[in-house]
Write a structure and sequence with these properties.
- There is one protein chain.
- Helix 10 (about 335-345) crosses helix 16, helix 27 crosses helix 31 and helix 27 packs across helix 32 (about 925-935).
- The chain is of the alpha+beta class.
- The longest helix is centred in the middle third of the chain and has 27 residues, at about 585-610.
- A seven-stranded mixed β-sheet has the order 9-10-8-11-7-13-12. The chain has a six-stranded mixed β-sheet with strand order 1-2-6-3-5-4, with helices on both faces.
């Protein structure tokens, strides 16, 4: 489906179904003329309070959603820095983001990665705040987080803090762009961190594929360059140190007129404006134009081509890249969104349905890859089956047949009007978004849209333009495409440097058209029957504080609450089915995984239009059964739930689809062992400690031994002895919730229920703790130290939260910034099966697991000297996070559901767990925290997972050789 359209729909559903991810990074900075900056800053600070809304700032008000309670003001400072102010008196987290229209495309030749290195360095001290860990320590104890990322055309810096700390946070943040230090010692150290990041992801298939693309694109285009940086590109050279290069890059590129700032806080717009003028008017403006590349992405002789590269993981992807004119100017018409919607649709008779029917593909994605001022491309990505891997030309023929069908039948104004209607509904009933993600997104939008449209632009469909669609279709031809294929088979004649990716370039033969009988199976999307029409919000009948237990039977329990907070025509339905057929062993677990995937596949064509219309669902296999979620506009929820239940109890289980789906799940499961080392270690925590749980190798082997006949037997048995817990929350009436629960009970409950209890091993019996070596295929080393709390009381949980908060920043600063042991370093709480625990994690290109163990122990040994020195601030940060109210319907539903799940079958649900935890937190003092830290870091409560063997050691460590034998030993924590 269309990426942009899916993203638009997920403004409604994102909290339930998708996540987003970007490269983690935590440092950057540079230098300007300090005298002029300080002078300008003093002058503006003196006048800011006198002129709350200066005429020279040209204030404008962006168009916002009717459901958005926040106030907005768009201004331009005298130094040409654009600012969007957001006042939200109810927010429980303030946030800010500054985006500079300078990215890796600006790297000087031979200094690849310099923009990324600058991003790292900006965090490591300014003239006003010279300590390299000052910013991070302040943000952490202020109950916040911070990060940054570098893209081709921009760099984005952002943070969030508790609202009362926003003024000081802005003061510290602004100094990045006025007076960074670039201390020589930390230039040398942080260069190692950038190199560690490069090495940590040297086996990442996304980066390896990009390395191949840099070899086959136009050498004059910035996308052809290495953007991360390493010790070679960032080395000191005769006549130029890398620090000098950084200073020059900062002075030349970081100009205020290239910057856009978004600030969200509790203060009024006038007060926020005064703060921003005071802190940011001193950013130097050298009036630099935005960098624009006129070079085409591909040269004429580079297309058409097919490039095949060898992946590390088991990947079978065909990616068709069509260079097209940038579409940013046409955000009101959205031509590429319309094309992506038709090509990426997953309903009946769609391109994806045809590819599945032919056994060629499992998934398909279509959308624009926007490089800002450096051009654009339209991408169609197809996840191939094993059969599709050998018949790539057949896949391409289907793709071009679908494109030709759009040329003939897709220029219909009603399609545009349907997208417009959906977008208007989603904009009208927009959720209040997370402050951190909101400021990041809007800082980017300020570089792309006019002031009045920065909020509405993604939802804006103003004018249908058939000519514009036809223009872009002219670029979607067999002659104008580079096809990138991930395939481990065949000979590879070339190798992309830096990531050493083997690849080959193959000649492209003319494609034959599909036969007419095949073309008859392909149709463009029909009108969407799920567009909601009943959008009224019902009057609240019962204003109880928490969900009420409406049905309380041994086999079925229902909690219901009508929403009275968010006022949206949406609801969330959660169903947890616990089944003996799933919980009784490995075979039941893999059958449940396969079964859920088969049902989801069967429902996809029917439910996809519902998803586009803001109504989504999920079915997920768990260790004890299935979790079912239906969420979105409540107009058609009952109809969708009925279809889900019917498919769940009576699926078609087609043999051809079974074979492909099983192969796909086995491939994805096996790929888990190709993740970065630290992720592989963390993934081993649950199968090492919890039962029922198994390693990926065991799951893959069991799945390979599971046939369609096994799945058919499972389909007849999984409802017997089952128990169901259910939550209905939102714009529903009590009678509707009861009716839905009755429907669930009729379909999913058979026979007398059985209680199904999991077990978590408690780490107490042997002095010295345990260690387990995990073999990984990566040059980096890694260590995960898991420390289990002494018990699961409120007191233990509260102390662990404060301990995790207190050590997060110092641990990072010690191992990452000072010792430069690796790019990936973090510490935090990590409950396993809801039992409190703590992890310390590091991945290193320079230190093996035993050496990391020494560094971890030295850090732990240092705790008595400083732990609890700033306890009030750290405790307040934890309490503030717990006191935050849900921002939207989805977050509130998740909290209710967590409380229900924590009680277990037959248990009493406690909806006041947060209030209890706040009381426990108030009792944490310096003495109890230090005592608790001594207990938690006791080696007998420790499990070490490392990429190398950790013994011999100074103290006794028991090696875990057989996971199942280890778990068979007691004592246990019984999981509800």
């Amino acid at each position: 489906m269309s990426f942009s359209l899916r993203l638009q729909c997920l403004y409604t559903l994102k909290a339930w179904f998708l996540a987003s991810s970007f490269r983690v990074s935590a440092r950057a900075r540079g230098v300007v003329c300090v005298f002029l900056s300080a002078l300008l800053g003093l002058q503006v600070a003196a006048n800011a309070a006198d002129v709350p809304v200066a005429a020279s700032l040209n204030p404008q008000t962006p168009i916002k959603s009717p459901n958005d309670p926040r106030d907005y003001r768009y201004i331009t400072l005298p130094n040409a820095l654009r600012v969007l102010l957001i006042s939200d008196p109810q927010t429980e987290q303030a946030a800010a983001a500054l985006q500079v229209a300078v990215g890796s495309a600006a790297d000087p030749e031979g200094r690849e990665g310099l923009a990324h290195f600058l991003e790292h360095m900006l965090f490591l001290g300014t003239e006003k705040y010279p300590e390299p860990d000052s910013y991070q320590a302040f943000i952490s104890k202020s109950g916040g987080s911070h990060n940054a990322y570098t893209a081709l055309d921009h760099t984005n810096y952002f943070f969030d803090v508790r609202p009362e700390f926003l003024p000081e946070a802005l003061d510290r943040f602004a100094e990045f762009f006025k007076s960074p230090l670039f201390l020589e010692a930390y230039v040398s150290r942080e260069r190692e961190a950038v190199n560690a990041e490069y090495l940590a992801r040297i086996r990442d298939d996304g980066r390896r594929a990009n390395a191949v693309l840099t070899q086959v694109t136009n050498p004059e285009h910035p996308a052809s360059r290495f953007s991360v940086g390493n010790l070679n590109t960032l080395a000191d050279r005769p006549g130029e140190t890398v620090r000098a290069a950084l200073l020059d890059f900062y002075a030349q590129q970081y100009s205020a007129n290239r910057m856009a700032l978004v600030v969200l806080g509790r203060e009024s717009l006038d007060a926020l404006q005064a703060q921003v003028v005071k802190q940011f008017a001193g950013v130097a403006n050298s009036d630099r134009p935005v960098l624009i590349s006129d070079a085409p992405l591909f040269l004429p002789d580079q297309l058409p081509k097919e490039v095949v590269y060898k992946p590390i993981k088991q990947l079978r992807e065909l990616r068709m890249i069509f260079p097209v004119p940038a579409s940013g100017t046409y955000f009101r018409e959205k031509p590429l969104t319309q094309l992506a919607n038709m090509l990426g649709h997953e309903g009946r008779d769609s391109l994806l349905s045809a590819l599945k029917r032919e056994g060629l593909a499992e998934a398909l994605w279509a959308g624009e890859s926007d490089m800002g001022p450096h051009g654009s491309s339209f991408v169609i990505s197809v996840a191939l089956t094993e059969k599709g891997r050998g018949k790539r030309n057949a896949v391409k023929r289907w793709v071009f047949a679908a494109i030709d069908l759009i040329r003939k039948q897709g220029m219909a104004p009603w399609r545009f009007e349907e997208l417009k209607q959906l977008a208007q509904i989603n904009f009208r009933f927009q959720d209040v978004r997370n402050p951190t993600s909101l400021v990041q997104t809007l800082a980017n939008a300020m570089h792309r849209y006019p002031a009045e449209e920065v909020l509405r632009a993604p939802y804006l469909y103003q004018e249908f333009d058939a000519g514009l669609l036809a223009l872009y279709l002219k670029y979607l031809t067999p002659e104008n495409v580079l096809t990138l294929v991930s395939d481990a088979g065949g000979e590879f004649t070339q190798r992309a440097p830096l990531y050493q990716t083997p690849y080959r370039i193959t000649k492209v033969k003319p494609l034959k058209p599909l036969p007419k009988e095949s073309l008859s199976q392909l149709k463009l999307p029909a009108p969407n029957p799920f567009i909601p029409t009943r959008l009224q919000v019902r009057a609240v009948a019962d204003k109880g504080k928490h969900p009420a237990r409406m049905i309380d039977e041994r086999s079925l329990r229902l909690w219901f609450k009508q929403d009275e907070t968010f006022g949206l025509p949406r609801s969330v339905i959660r169903v947890q089915l616990r089944s003996p057929a799933v919980a009784n062993g490995l075979a039941g677990r893999v059958q449940a995984d396969l079964y859920a995937a088969m049902v989801l596949d069967e429902l996809n064509e029917y439910s996809y239009p519902a998803f586009l219309a803001g109504l989504g669902f999920d079915i997920r296999a768990t260790a004890r059964g299935f979790d079912i979620t239906v969420a979105g506009y409540n107009d058609r929820q009952g109809l969708l739930l009925t279809e889900i239940l019917e498919a769940l109890v009576s699926p078609r289980l087609e043999p051809a689809r079974f074979a492909n789906i099983r192969a796909e799940i086995m491939r994805r499961t096996a790929n888990g062992d190709k993740q970065p080392p630290y992720i592989q270690l963390i993934r081993q925590l649950v199968p090492t400690l919890y039962q029922p749980a198994w390693t990926s190798e065991e799951l893959v082997e069991a799945m390979g031994n599971t046939g369609l006949a096994d799945l058919k037997r499972f389909s007849r048995s999984f409802v017997y002895g089952s128990q169901v817990d259910m939550l209905a929350y939102g714009n529903l009436l009590p009678a509707e919730a009861r009716q839905l629960a009755t429907l669930v009970g009729q379909q999913l409950v058979r026979g007398a229920p059985q209680n199904l209890t999991g077990k978590l091993k408690l780490l107490t019996p042997t002095w010295g703790g345990y260690s387990r070596q995990v073999d990984v295929q990566h040059d980096d080393h890694a260590l995960v130290m898991y420390q289990q709390a002494p018990d699961d009381s409120d007191r233990a949980r509260a102390h662990l939260l404060v301990l995790a908060q207190s050590i997060r920043s110092p641990f990072f600063n010690s191992l990452r910034t000072e010792q430069q042991l690796g790019y990936v370093v973090f510490a935090g709480q990590m409950p396993v099966a809801d039992y409190p625990g703590l992890v310390l994690v590091a991945q290193s290109p320079v230190a093996d697991a035993p050496s990391l163990r020494v560094a971890f122990d030295k850090f732990i040994d240092s705790l008595p000297g400083w732990l609890a020195d700033d306890l009030p601030a750290q405790r307040a940060a934890v309490m503030a996070e717990l006191q935050q109210k849900p921002r939207n319907l989805a977050e509130q539903a998740s909290r209710y559901w967590d409380d229900i799940a924590a009680a277990g079958p037959g248990g009493k649900v406690d909806f006041a767990r947060r209030e209890r935890m706040l009381k426990a937190l108030a009792e944490v003092n310096a003495v109890t925290l230090r005592t608790f830290a001594y207990q938690v870091f006791d080696p007998q409560r420790r499990l070490l997972l490392g990429t190398e063997q950790l013994i011999p050691e100074p103290e006794l460590v028991t090696r875990v050789r057989d996971v199942h034998a280890f778990k068979a030993e007691g004592p246990y924590y019984l999981v509800p």
